[in-house]
Amino acid sequence: MATPFTSGLSSYALAALRIIAGLLFLLHGTQKLFGFPAPPPTGTPSVLSLFWIGAIIEIVGGALIALGFYARIAAFFTAGEMAVAYFMFHAPRGFYPLLNGGELSVLFCFVFLYIAATGPGAFAINRR
Q1: Which of 3, 44, 60, 79 has the most CB within a 10 Å radius?
Q2: What is the pLDDT of residues 65-93, one digit of tens each?
Q3: Under a CB-based contact definition with an 8 Å cutoff, are residues 25 and 108 in contact?
Q4: How far is CA 64 from CA 72, 74, 107, 120, in A?
């Protein structure tokens, strides 16, 4: 049950979740394209390959989500990217996400779906 104290903090908690998830997602894209903060384990993707397009979505989507600029739309598209990543690359290796390496894809997918449904919370650039 929400109290006046906790209901006032929920927008800030959502903003913290949005900002951290967006920045972490952005870093996945920069790792794939630029080798920052660490070189990608599979090498830099070819231009216009599926991994390259995914990295662009991760960089742009992660930045938009972290800033709270059209965060709902960006979160919807990035959730879709994570669902595709899970079912194309992880699920064929086994049923359980912990065993097939897909736990981050699942977690990002549902965090972004939550942001798409609820909005960006406090500190968003285009919050009304």
Answers
A1: 79
A2: 999 999 999 999 999 999 999 999 999 99
A3: yes
A4: 9, 6, 18, 10
